[in-house]
Amino acid sequence: MKGYWGKALVVDLTTGASAGWKIPGEWLRDYIGGEGIGVRYLADLITPETEPFAKEQPLIFATGPLTGTPAPCSGRCVVVFRSPATGTLGMSNAGGYFAPELKKAGWDALIVTGKSEKPVYISIKDDQVELRCAEKVWGQGIHATEDFIKQDLQEEKVQIASIGQSGENKVMFAAIMTDKHRAFGRGGAGALMGSKNLKAIAVKGTKTMPVADLEQLKAIGAEARKELFEEAFVRDELKPFGTPSFYDSLTLRSR
Q1: Cα 157 to the chain's mean position, in Å?
Q2: How far, in Å, CA of 84 to CA of 174, rounded?
Q3: Which of 17, 130, 195, 241 could disulfide-link 53, Cβ–Cβ 3.0 to 4.6 Å?
Q4: In 10 A of CB 180, how many CB atoms?
Q5: What is the distance between the alpha carbons of residues 101 and 197, in angstroms, rounded to a whole number?
Q6: What does 111-179 look like in DSSP terms, one character per residue?
Q7: What was the pLDDT predicted at 250?
Q8: What value, to the nearest 5°, has the Cα angle with vertex 13 and ends 60 and 8?
Q9: Ramachandran area for residue 144 (φ above 0: left; ψ -120 to 50: alpha; else beta)
């Protein structure tokens, strides 16, 4: 099916092993997008009794069929997990370049399980997957972590999702951050990442996402972007300020 590689990368932090799982074709059709695929995997990988911080608890990063293509607003990544804050389904998403880079590496989803004995980060470059030591940045913030990883890998354009001190200490509302300022901010995904001694995930891809008609997609994408940015709210508020653009309307609605 165009728009997908049909593959999920699974990394076990306990053993250090990684493997590619084939995503069933019917899943790609029936559970369209990162949220659908992520929730479908979560349903298979845990039981109602699985505790949020159990080492077998998965942390699932998933993408959609337009991710990694010229389609506008398609760069978001969703994280699916059991929320340590609520004990129920946790789902959070963030924009930026992490999701397109994961797709360019040849993966529609990343599933992290297990728990490392020591702080590590996952390095993914296409099919090359490695657990690397993160002890030097354990206890440090997002900016220092991203800078360290780029230097450690000698790769300035690598895309990184990481946690700070709140995630390390399993604060129930801790976020996972990417691009230093974009947040997977709901449900406490950062706390789950910290419970696994996982400081960060670094991704670099070199592949081109196959689509049915690239030129037509580019043309439609350009037209859609033009229409979007003709909207005053999108142009003047949403683009420069992001989520805070909605605060006024949310405040008015709550009165």
Answers
A1: 17
A2: 10
A3: 195
A4: 14
A5: 23
A6: EEES--SS-EEEEEETTEEEEEE-GGGTT--HHHHHHHHHHHHT-TT-EEEE--HHHHTT-TTPPEEET
A7: 65
A8: 35
A9: alpha
Query: How many residues are there in the chain?
Result: 255
Say what the pLDDT of residue 46 is.
93
Low-confidence ranges of the chain (pLDDT < 70): 1, 249-255
For residues 159 and 149, give the distance between their C-alpha atoms in angstroms, rounded to a whole number.
10
Domains of the chain (ranges; CATH) run: 7-204 (3.60.9.10), 214-254 (no CATH)
Half-sphere exposure of residue 75, counting CA atoms within 13 Å on the CB side? 14
In the prediction, which pLDDT does 255 show? 53
Put residue 145 in one of left, alpha, beta given phi > 0 → left and psi -120 to 50 → alpha.
alpha
Residue 221 CB partners (closer than 8 Å, separation 6+): 69, 70, 71, 72
Sign of the alpha-carbon torsion through 26, 31, 32, 33: negative
